[in-house]
Structures are given as C-alpha cells and as structure tokens.
Amino acid sequence: MKDFLLIYRMNYDAIPVGTPEQMAAMTKRWMDWIAEIAAKNKLADRGNRLATSGKVVRADNVVTNGPYTEIKESIGGYSMVKAGSYDEAIELAKGCPILSVGGNVEVREVSVL
Hints:
- By secondary structure, the protein is α+β, with helices and mostly antiparallel strands.
- It has one domain (about 1-110): Dimeric alpha+beta barrel (Alpha-Beta Plaits), CATH 3.30.70.
- The chain has 2 helices and 6 strands.
- The strands form 2 sheets. A 4-stranded antiparallel β-sheet has the order 2-5-1-6. Strands 3-4 form a two-stranded antiparallel ribbon.
- The model has no long low-confidence stretch (mean pLDDT about 90).
C-alpha cells in the first residue's frame, strides 16, 4: 500500500451560503465519506481544513501574504489515504463531497525517498 494525499481545492468565494440545516447536512456528508474510507482501512490521516489566510516564505527571507490571492481556487484541506494504486486512490476521491459544490480533489502519491 502507498500513501496518497487528497488535496481539496475550491473557489471559496463561490461557495453557496446555506441554511444551518444545509451546512449540517454537508458536514455529515464529509463525516460519512471519511468514515467510509476508514471502514475500508484506507484512511491514514483524516487531515484537516485549512484557514483561508496564510503566508508565503521565499528566498532571501521575503515573506508575503498568501496563500496565493491572485488565483481563484485555493486549498481548503487535505486527507491522507492508503491505496494500492493511483486508480484506487482516485476511486476513493470520487466520493468527496467537495465535488458536489464545484470543487475538486487533487490526488498525489507521497514519495518516500
């Protein structure tokens, strides 16, 4: 088994504002999806949401506001899964609730040197 990072991306300015009930339903979809992966013994780390603000450190000690305000899409969170191949990791990612609200999931193999 290999580790794969699922990176959740979305244009957070375009997130539909829902009622408290709709937000609770979306949270439940996320929790159920992660629980399903865990039940298959494929969850390495459930990960976390990321704050929308941040800093970028560059060469010569240059620090700028980030992450990257010039792009519309930003990383909102991540999880780590275990899979035998990219195809298997992609199948796990296909159930991600972010896909239903216009976001996407980047699937990256964790390279062990």
